[in-house]
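Late entry, guanine complex.
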Amino acid sequence: MTKILDGKATSLAIEAELTEAVNARLAAGRKRPHLAAVLVGDNPASRAYVGHKVKACARVGFESTLVEKPADISQDDLLAVVEELNHNPDVDGFIVQLPLPDHIDDQAVLEAVNPAKDVDGFHPVNAGKMSLDLPCFLPATPMGIMSLLDRAGIDTQGKHAVILGRSSIVGTPMALLLRRNGAPGNCTVTVCHSRTQDLAEHTRRADILVAAIGRAHFVTADMVKEGAVVIDVGINRIPDATKKSGSRLTGDVDFDQVAPKCSWITPVPGGVGPMTIASLMQNTLQACANKDT
Ligand code: GUN
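Prediction complete; structure with ligand written out below:
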């Protein structure tokens, strides 16, 4: 029987824990956590993601600030925004929503963020600490997937995990976390990417398959082993004439075809997406608590 890995329900459980933690902080006379998000330009997907983050802050009792800048902001001016947030004592953590316009060097901006406020975990200091298994902020999507596996009680020990995609936001950190000596963890990990040969040969050996390539319905039933755990990170917009908007969101996995073969599978929407937001909230609480004396 296929079971649905319900990211929506799990994220609500995490939000309830966060709300309780905020109330306990306030009762103890401590600061309310505060997340800031920087949105450059008007990419509709980025705007929607940032909107979800701001709304989540309100649900758990965090303060939030949305800093909006036009697409033609200069890199220096954006770096000045980052510097202001680095020094603003009320802001515990902040994110710069990606992608940034082409004329801006993403890496220069990410490296300007104070690692202690880098709740996205994108600064090289946090990425380096993660690779050494030291305490740090983990990138929200892989962190959320680890929580989802953990809270569903899925045994990962000694399992073969295959990851489709090697991005620095998802694929690469996912491989590190699943490989870790811990629970969840202790997987044997294969990372596949655009140059991988005989891709299906790899995916068919996966006990845990993580799809993070950004191509709608890329993973088909013939690529999946019977009983596999399938995690779909994709958020792809495809035409759908039955919808008022004319389109809908779908994952990297052909859900209808693949689900019957799985022991567990995440839906899109309602799988990884809400867990990403919940993890960002957990990181923000941590950034705030790290400043407690
Ligand atoms: N763009 C896509 N995913 C992310 C994310 O997790 N954080 C930020 N800042 N931008 C993104």
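The chain has ten helices and eleven strands. Will revisit in the morning.
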